[in-house]
Request: fold
Amino acid sequence: MTFHNKVIVITGASSGIGKALALQMLQLGAKVALCARKADKLNDAFAKYTAETILLISADVSKEEDCKRFAEEVIEKWGTIDVLVNNAGISMRALFEDLDLNVLRELMDINFWGTVYMSKFCLPSILKSKGVIIGVSSIAGYRGLPARTGYSASKFAMQGFLESLRTEMLHTGVHVMWVSPGFTASNIRNTALSADGKAQKETPLEEGKLMSAEECAKRIIVAMSKRKRTLVMTIQGKMAVWFNKLFPSFVDNKVYNLFLNEPDSPLMKYENK
Ligand SMILES: NC(=O)c1ccc[n+]([C@@H]2O[C@H](COP(=O)([O-])OP(=O)(O)OC[C@H]3O[C@@H](n4cnc5c(N)ncnc54)[C@H](OP(=O)(O)O)[C@@H]3O)[C@@H](O)[C@H]2O)c1
Reply:
């Protein structure tokens, strides 16, 4: 699949992976329709592009009516949708014991329901174009991560939804896939929610040492153009997925220790008991 003149809808494109993906799609000659909640940040990121190739919409994917309006505006402007990238997402970091349940709901509303709403409203057009629906998932969608109950649950749910949809679409010409980046430098850990629902602000990782959002976007585009079923992006991710199938209790310990050793790990609470 080539992307020249194709209409690509990307959610959560004001930052990180979504922004990098949109910029690379523009370079490939695509028309891009992008959303995020904060309109200013989205407008600033794409200020130099004209309305011929770009549509910027302020929309919250956790709201069904925003997703419907976003899809309708794309159809009104360009008459078709070739690719939907469900990228908008947030993360969290807190023990379930301490977690305000509204945090878990918010994660599901954005990461899972956002994918469902956008897929629902873009699907009629994607059926006609025999296009692609893609979800930006995570290794957390294959392997539950401690202090990330809401994040893992939302990504497992996203993958289950997309796998069902892919199977339904098997003879329609629509391709459904998901990609699972490893740790990628972005804003996601700054905006990740704490137990009380406030952004944790500080990232516990050295972002400079992680894969760049540009490299991640490049790999997503290759996977999309080859219509891959899934893409697990890093060696660490591939090992986590396969070892988890074969030796799940071994992976429980490995994953626990990995997350225990991050700065200010919430798991320390259970170590000090
Ligand atoms: N970075 C990683 O290490 C990593 C690893 C695996 C998977 N991922 C996944 O990659 C995707 C992109 O994350 P990122 O790392 O690029 O994070 P990011 O830099 O924080 O970007 C997230 C984007 O999503 C938007 N967004 C958040 N909530 C939204 C909502 N309710 N409605 C519409 N837009 C919303 C944000 O803009 P507003 O805040 O203005 O809405 C922003 O544009 C996520 O699904 C994430 O789970 C990331």
Q: What stands out?
A: The two ends are 55 Å apart (CA to CA). The chain is about 45% helix and 10% strand. Residues 11-18, 35-38, 41, 59-62, 87-90, 110, 136, 138, 181, 183-184, 186-188, 191, 213 surround NAP (CB under 6 Å). The first strand starts at residue 7 and ends at 11.
